[in-house]
Amino acid sequence: QVSAALKEGRVTPTELCQRCLSLIKSTKFLNAYITVAEEAALKQAEESEKRYRGGQLLGVLDGIPIAVKDNFNTAGIETTCASNMLKGYVPPYNATVVQKLLDRGAVLLGKTNLDEFAMGSGSTDGVFGPVRNPWSYSGQYKEKSVPKSHSEDKESNWVITGGSSGGSAAAVSSFTCFAALGSDTGGSTRNPAAHCGVVGLKPTYGLISRHGLIPLVNSMDVPGILTRCVDDAAVVLGSLAGHDPKDSTTIQDNFKPFELPSLTDVSKLSIGIPKEYHAPGLSSEILALWSKAADLFKNAGARVIEVSLPHTRYSIVCYHVLCTAEVASNMARFDGLEYGHRSDMNKSTESMYAATRREGFNDVVRGRILSGNYFLLKQNYENYFIKAQKVRRLIANDFVKAFESGVDVLLTPTTLSDAVPYMEFIKEDNRTRSTQDDILTQAANMAGLPAINVPTALSERGLPVGLQFIGRSFQEKQLLTVAKWFEKQVKFPVIQLEEVKRHDPAVFQHQKSASFS
Amino acid sequence: VVARSCAGVWRRAWQRGGGCPAPRRQQAVACNARGGAVPAGKSGLAPWVPVVGLEIHAQISSNSKLFSGSQVQFAAPPNPLVSFFDASLPGTLPVINRRCVEAAVMTGLALNCSINKKSLFDRKHYFYADLPAGYQITQQRVPIAVNGSLSYSLCIDNKMSQMVTKTVRIKQIQLEQDSGKSLHDDTRSQTLVDLNRAGVGLMEVVMEPDMCCGEEAAAAVRELQLILQTLGSSQAVMAEGQLRVDANVSVHHPGEPYGVRTEVKNINSVRFLAKAVDYEIQRQIEELENGGTILNETRAFDSKLGCTVPMRDKEGKQDYRFMPEPNLPPLILYDAKSLPANMNHQQVVNIDWIRERLPDLPSVKRAKLVEQYGILPEHSFTLLNEDGLTEFFENVVKETQMKPKKVIGWILNDLLSYLKQHSLTVKESPVSSFLLADLLNLLEKKEISSTAAKQVLAELWKGEGKSPLEIVKEKELELIQDQKELEQICQAVIDGQKNE
């Protein structure tokens, strides 16, 4: 819709950019952005405006403000991964996905906050502090909150965004941008999408280039897409997907961007409900919502059947071994020699390395490096790494079998509960939290499958809850078509944020979330 | 190369002294032609069987590096040939260089290996200043080529005429990244790192411990050098670091299990290789005969002192924590049978296509020279051993009526010894093949004697631009053709004799 508005001249790219920038300023307390590239963004907006005037658009995304998670390399713009190790690091190149967006005229507003090096499920463990879920300040949440005594700071009640792409999710959710890039290794895009009430798409591994995405687990990472509606996600996907010669793990096949059909008839659809996703700790609320969704499909004529993915419960343990092993390897390059933080310790190369890495990494990162190196030791490799690879194969095969049995798309919850308050979240350590929170999202990364979170309803506490659809490899079109139909049925409400209302009352005239398609 | 080898004896040839034992008599340690156990000499001790294996790293001759697009160039000023990937900037990914793969396939085929149609890449982790990523990408699980062999020749009994061919098994060839270079500046307590070399493609050629002395090792490496240079897959110049050899050495008594081996590094020439291996064998024998033990350690060859010394920074065995390289899918190669119909040969590496285009290997070239020109096998070795000499020889043969069998003598004895004396390469020779051919023609036509020819040649070396004919005329070296004149001279000599 905003794209149409731009075309019709109802709003100019510069105005749009300025509005977003000022909204970013007024929502600063969310801590969603690490870096705001104000000057560069306005310049890009100006260029876009020239193109609109001359009728020479670069595409649908021309002039659209976007945000990018701070683990994507952006030339000339500080890229920190929310870590001391890369504070002040200004890359000399753009990640392929960033370049693609810029080539299509998108306006890069800034870099969003995350858990350090994308390790975490709360966006609370970064060096710039935690990200606050915009819904903490929404009318809906405030309504449902138990009224506290006046002396209590209402600020302490805020809830987390989920992670690790919390900044991106918050940015999209609070209307400061129209789309954001996240990354997804164990659920890092879908989890915060669910908690922030936005669409979070994890594409098939190998569809979108990882060149320039600072890796967590090379064999599972994908760039993630966060938007306010499914159609928008499809548009962004269309701009990003396709072979990149700089990334040897992208598939060679030609990718054709698609427009999502508006399904009216779901009778030919077969939805699978994996019973193992009824995981321990799943809130009764979400369970009920999941059930309701299944019924929705059934009543509309789709075939809804229970399937089994028997190795689901091993995926977290398996993920821990493989993830930490890759982390240990990927982080080996951070030695302070060529770039990034370098300790003042200079007694010897080794002591400099050790001090640099101790100073540069937080506990979470260091913990994973130590574990990973342990698993990679010669005497442990067979029992841990190799075994985990085998279990990974079993997990992937579970999905293959499920899809072979005739199911088109799987429907599962995305998270175990709605967003918890920050004060409660930090009572447990990062590893415990990740273990708990990744359980519903992790297996899709193991298998490399596409998955999407669609905001479904508000919980009793007035916070978003989403449901997840998992599709077949490279069948994003089918996945998104189903997701779009579902989105239309559930009519998820727009967030009632003071700041947004102040900036753009027009936004609330639409029933759906504002979108740019 | 023709290495001199003799049915010699292992002896303890030096005194024990402090520090690095410098041998009193630099005995060329050798083993007999059959490479087996050597009987003990006068010392009367049990015989020793030396076992030598080699790990050779050959820099691939290519325009760009193994996984990145930056240039490969020797002796460039520090650090301009470094791409983002080479510097390990976060977020960069490896992309394999096709030319490097082809080089490895060519080399594998030339060494009679089986080429693995599917090979894998791994990460080998260790921390060092010249390894920016903290790991090297190599092929530990499944390398690109396995189970080959290399034949090389040695001469026995110090006679060039008796040559024996030996074979060493090639365990595998793997592709891997080179590291950067560290220069230690002790005065300022700092290390300078040059990353130009980081990421250059290497072929690691592993030779099984089938060799038994320095000469064999040197001969094998020399032959490998020639093969690589013929293929063009590596320029293989040891002095420029394009070929690096590490030797694995151990000794044992016949019938007993292999001894503990040491690894010898820092060998900068083929000659030093022979020296280093022989020294190490002797050192181990001496150590063991004195009741000591051999440590499984890495030692550096000190070329000035001619001995091996333990390398300082070894603190226990390293665990490299090998892990599959997740950013590189398995390397798939095709042959004529497996090549899918619609694939453009530009997009894939076809083993059979490469095999068909392999140039003649040195052994084939030598055989052809022997057959075509009737020269001796050992002559063909010398011809190939010297860069450009074969071409020179063939050019001379083309331009002269003199038989190749005679030409070869002039090439190997006169030309080559002159070049060696003045440390010149064939390309730098002041005497061109045309000049030499002219000279030999004069000789062949019996216009001058061979003694005169040698004199003319000596003049030609001065490079003053005169032709052989001009020099002959200048120095009046023509053979006298006139019968009468000859008779007069002879008579004069006889008369002179009579008078004494």
From TrEMBL, chain A:
Choose any GO biological process term that the UniProt entry carries and state it. Answer: mitochondrial translation
Query: Which keywords label this protein?
Result: ATP-binding, Ligase, Mitochondrion, Nucleotide-binding, Protein biosynthesis, Transferase
User: Which Gene Ontology CC terms are recorded?
Assistant: glutamyl-tRNA(Gln) amidotransferase complex; mitochondrion
Which ranges does the record mark as transmembrane? none
Q: Which GO terms describe its molecular function?
A: ATP binding; glutaminyl-tRNA synthase (glutamine-hydrolyzing) activity; transferase activity
Give the matching InterPro entries: Amidase, Amidase_dom, AS_sf, GatA
Limits of the Amidase domain:
20-136, 160-480
What is the protein's name according to its record? Answer: GATA amidotransferase
Q: Which gene encodes it?
A: Qrsl1
Automatic annotation (TrEMBL), chain B:
- Please state the gene responsible for encoding this protein: Gatb
Against SMART domains, the record matches this protein to: GatB_Yqey
Q: Name one GO molecular function term.
A: transferase activity
Say yes or no: keyword Transcription present: no
Protein biosynthesis: present as a keyword of the record? yes
Q: Which residues form the Asn/Gln amidotransferase domain?
A: 391-500
Q: Which InterPro entries match?
A: Asn/Gln-tRNA_amidoTrfase_suB/E, Asn/Gln-tRNA_Trfase_suB/E_cat, Asn/Gln_amidotransferase, Asn/Gln_tRNA_amidoTrase-B-like, GatB, Gln_synth/guanido_kin_cat_dom
Q: Which SUPFAM superfamilies match?
A: GatB/YqeY motif, Glutamine synthetase/guanido kinase
**Which Gene Ontology terms describe the biological processes this protein takes part in?**
glutaminyl-tRNAGln biosynthesis via transamidation; mitochondrial translation
What is this protein called in UniProt? Answer: GATB amidotransferase
What lineage, starting at the top, does this entry show? Eukaryota, Metazoa, Chordata, Craniata, Vertebrata
**The species this protein was found in:** Sagittarius serpentarius
Concerning its family, UniProt says:
Belongs to the GatB/GatE family. GatB subfamily.
* Enzymatic reactions: L-glutamyl-tRNA(Gln) + L-glutamine + ATP + H2O = L-glutaminyl-tRNA(Gln) + L-glutamate + ADP + phosphate + H(+)
Which key words tag this protein in UniProt? Answer: ATP-binding, Ligase, Nucleotide-binding, Protein biosynthesis, Transferase
Q: Name one GO cellular component term.
A: glutamyl-tRNA(Gln) amidotransferase complex
